[in-house]
């Protein structure tokens, strides 16, 4: 029986012919990395391969690593296996990884979304025989509103808070969500301040994309200067001693999980905006259809429910366990930075 082109091991997704891993969670010799979030890009590999826009992100997060950058659609061959990277639309530098050998094509999505957010290179469907997909929001209940509508709501929320003499504190993941919000916030309303962890990552992304000006909050920042303006901070800053200097403030979180009733209340957030860097239910289904794949492997999220539905639609669908965490992954990434930022 022919071995699969990619198989799931205790170290990660492995291409045995090329002796290469895709987003491995244990240290390996050679890793192809889809994007910079911590659950997909781990420290300790001997060599990293990724899209060139992701190179500065990896270096910032992982330190002194051996990494080479590739262009979109650029084919590079390892032991006769052809690899290429295609835009995933998830965050800046995020790639799908296409793997081809002896006429067989697999695509690993990493994390992805099909809506063009105006910052990351938009998602590009890739034809394949087997599609390895996340399903972070793989339930019919998840239906995203257009980004433009959500951003309008956020800007209106900020304007209202300013009129009330309050500081607006908007929580978003340090890498990806914070810069997506920053890109579309209305700077005519006021000034945008940043938590140190957000500012550090934003400085890295300024090498790649154009973003509005921001000002880092330091121990010397006066509370009066923040009043009526907006602060971008990681979710881990909520409830920390750092946030006390922002009083009086109103909080909000931008996340796909805000679609769940009670999520905002459980997190003790004043306002929730449903904005995700992952596909909703229709997005996942349309992405799968566009690939033409017959086999689908679901890796993280609502895997059992989503794969069952796909089987009912005629796909050869199954689940595989990974250490990928989807939209929950970055919540604790900057926990150790909160008090020092």
Topology of this structure?
Blueprint: E1 7-8, E2 13-15, E3 20-22, E4 30-32, E5 47-51, H1 55-62, E6 67-70, E7 76-78, E8 81-87, E9 95-101, E10 104-108, E11 130-135, H2 147-163, E12 167-171, H3 177-184, E13 192-194, H4 196-205, E14 215-216, H5 223-226, E15 230-233, E16 249-254, H6 263-266, E17 271-273, H7 281-291, E18 295-301, H8 303-312, E19 316-319
Parallel strand pairs: 3-4, 4-5, 5-6, 10-11, 11-18, 12-15, 12-16, 13-14, 13-15, 16-17, 18-19
Antiparallel strand pairs: 1-2, 2-3, 7-8, 8-9, 9-10
Task: Describe this protein's structure.
The protein has 341 residues and is an alpha/beta fold. The chain has 2 domains: 7-141 and 277-337, Metallo-beta-lactamase, Chain A; 147-273, Rossmann fold (3-Layer(aba) Sandwich), CATH 3.40.50. It is built from 8 helices and 19 strands. The protein has helices at residues 55-62, 147-163, 177-184, 196-205, 223-226, 263-266, 281-291, 303-312, and strands at 7-8, 13-15, 20-22, 30-32, 47-51, 67-70, 76-78, 81-87, 95-101, 104-108, 130-135, 167-171, 192-194, 215-216, 230-233, 249-254, 271-273, 295-301, 316-319. The protein starts with 6 loop residues before the first strand and ends in a 22-residue tail after the last strand.
- Radius of gyration, whole Å: 20 Å
Uncertain runs with pLDDT below 50, 5 residues or more? 329-341
What coarse outline follows from CA principal-axis ratios?
globular
CATH superfamily of the largest domain: Ribonuclease Z/Hydroxyacylglutathione hydrolase-like
Helix and strand content put the structural class at alpha/beta
Question: What strand order characterises the main sheet?
Answer: 7-8-9-10-11-18-19
Instruction: Please give the CATH architecture of the largest domain.
Output: 4-Layer Sandwich
Average pLDDT metric: 94
Query: What is the count of DSSP helices, taking H or I runs of 4+ residues?
Result: 8
CATH topology of the largest domain: Metallo-beta-lactamase, Chain A
What is the CATH class of the largest domain?
A: Alpha Beta
Percentage of residues in strands = 15-25%
Q: Describe the largest sheet.
A: 7 strands, mixed
N-to-C CA distance: 55 Å
């Amino acid at each position: 029986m022919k071995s699969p082109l990619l198989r799931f091991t205790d170290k990660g997704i492995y291409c045995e012919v090329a002796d290469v891993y895709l987003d491995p969670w244990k240290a390996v010799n050679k890793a192809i990395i889809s994007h910079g979030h911590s659950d997909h890009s781990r420290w300790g590999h001997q060599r990293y391969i990724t899209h060139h826009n992701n190179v500065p992100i990896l270096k910032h997060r992982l330190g002194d690593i051996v990494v080479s950058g590739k262009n979109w659609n650029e084919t590079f061959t390892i032991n006769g296996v052809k690899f290429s990277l295609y835009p995933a639309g998830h965050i800046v530098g995020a790639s799908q990884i296409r793997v081809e050998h002896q006429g067989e094509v697999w695509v690993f999505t990493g994390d992805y979304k099909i809506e063009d957010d105006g910052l990351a290179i938009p998602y590009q469907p890739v034809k394949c025989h087997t599609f390895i997909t996340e399903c972070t929001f793989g339930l019919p209940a998840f239906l995203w509103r257009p980004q433009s509508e959500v951003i309008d709501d956020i800007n209106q929320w900020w304007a209202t808070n300013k009129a009330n003499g309050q500081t607006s504190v908007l929580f978003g993941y340090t890498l990806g969500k914070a810069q997506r919000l920053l890109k579309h916030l209305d700077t005519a309303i006021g000034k945008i301040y940043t938590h140190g962890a957000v500012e550090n990552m934003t400085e890295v992304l300024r090498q790649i994309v154009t973003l509005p000006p921001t000002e880092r909050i330091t121990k010397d920042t006066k509370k009066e200067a923040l009043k009526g303006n907006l602060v971008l901070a990681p979710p881990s800053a909520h409830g920390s001693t750092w946030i006390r200097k922002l009083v009086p403030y109103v909080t909000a979180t931008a996340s796909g999980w805000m679609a769940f009733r009670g999520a905002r209340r459980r997190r003790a957030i004043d306002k929730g905006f449903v904005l995700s860097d992952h596909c909703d239910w229709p997005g996942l289904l349309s992405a799968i259809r566009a690939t033409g794949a017959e086999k689908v492997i679901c890796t993280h999220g609502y895997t059992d429910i989503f794969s069952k539905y796909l089987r009912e639609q005629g796909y050869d669908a199954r689940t595989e366990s990974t250490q990928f965490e989807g939209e929950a992954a970055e919540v604790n990434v900057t926990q150790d930075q909160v008090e020092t930022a």
